[in-house]
Amino acid sequence: MIHSVRFTAVLDTNVIYPVIIRDLLLWFAYYDMYTPKWSNHIFDEWKDVMHRKGVSPDESEKRTLNLNNAFPDALVTHYETLIDHLELPDEKDRHVLAAAIKTNAHVIVSNNIKDFPEDVLDRYGLKIKTPDDFLTDIIDLNTEIAVEAFKEMVLNKKNPELDEYEVLDCLRKNGLKDTADYLHALL
User: Any idea where the PIN domain is (predicted)?
Assistant: First the structure.
């Protein structure tokens, strides 16, 4: 099911902020291996992280606009009324679940697995996956397309320019060990 644009994934802030993880997720989406979704709440959190990391407000606004322009159907709207009716271990994550419910997503991609209990997600037909698990699933079902998307991502790495193996190392350093190892085996 993860092999088509009909498969919808809400990307949590913690998988959008690290550039290398965001890049691979978005290249796979660009190659129609799944449909990405996010919300203004997620982008507000992303902007906060960028500001804490020294990114100017103008630059952070530009980055969020670029993402919305690249994927004009990704922004989930009208989910806010659901937030107060949801229960999660961390109330700050309710907006992510609300966006996933509103858009009829299949999965939430997040590094905060413990914050999205399976019994709660089951009520809404949702799953939670780490970016490493999500990406390896996509690669498993779309090996040729995944390799093509990865190679194009590498070709577009300009600041700094990196080769395939340097990008794989960056993926590993950012928690995508299985994804990097899988791609490495396919190159």
Answer: 9-114
DSSP codes, 116-154: S-HHHHHTTT-EEE-HHHHHHHHHHH-HHHHHHHHHHHH
Q: What is the CATH number of the domain that holds 120?
A: 3.40.50.1010
- Rounded Cα distance between 140 and 146, Å, is 9
Nearest to 31 by CA among 174, 143, 145, 172: 145
Q: What pLDDT, in 10s, does the model give residues 57-76?
A: 999 999 999 999 999 999 99
- Tell me, yes or no, if the pTM score tops 0.85: yes
Q: How many CB atoms lie within 10 A of CB 92?
A: 11
Say if residues 32 and 4 touch (Cβ distance below 8 Å).
Answer: yes
SS3 of residue 76 by DSSP: strand
Question: Per the domain annotation, does 148 fall within a domain?
Answer: no
Give the number of other Cβ atoms within 10 Å of residue 144's Cβ. Answer: 8
Total domains, the chain? 1
